Amino acid sequence: MSTKQPRFIGEELGVRYYLGLSGAEPGYFGSVVESGSHQNSLRMILDGLIDAAALDSTVLEAEIVQNPSIAGKLRTIAALGPSPAPPWVVHRSVSNTVRRDLRRRFLAMHRKENGRKILDNAAILRFAAVSDRNYDLIREMDSIAAGVKW
Description:
By secondary structure, the protein is mainly alpha-helical. Helices cover 41% and strands 5% of the residues.
């Protein structure tokens, strides 16, 4: 990376929140672009197209498992979080009966062999029931991050 301001990927809430808490000035990054996905951001870092990106730790871990050689090409600047995982949602048109059944099945799948295999393949221990208040931290982060301009 040169002495110019870093090129950064993303409109990542966690990064804007972190910068808001640290008092970073507008223009902290020389430029900010959207990659479309965490995987694309990672590829852009590895290809030298950008200097930094906010990557979901789960995505990064999975990519390193598939290609261990990339681990030595990356440096963690900061680990942000923890924050709640994104919720799994269904469209409003899905009936209450189907929604309840899906919820029940997801919450119980770690108890059955075939469910554990699926979860293991996705590096997920189990699903947990949450409520809206579990996302209060995200709302607080958004409130602070809203004042951070790239």
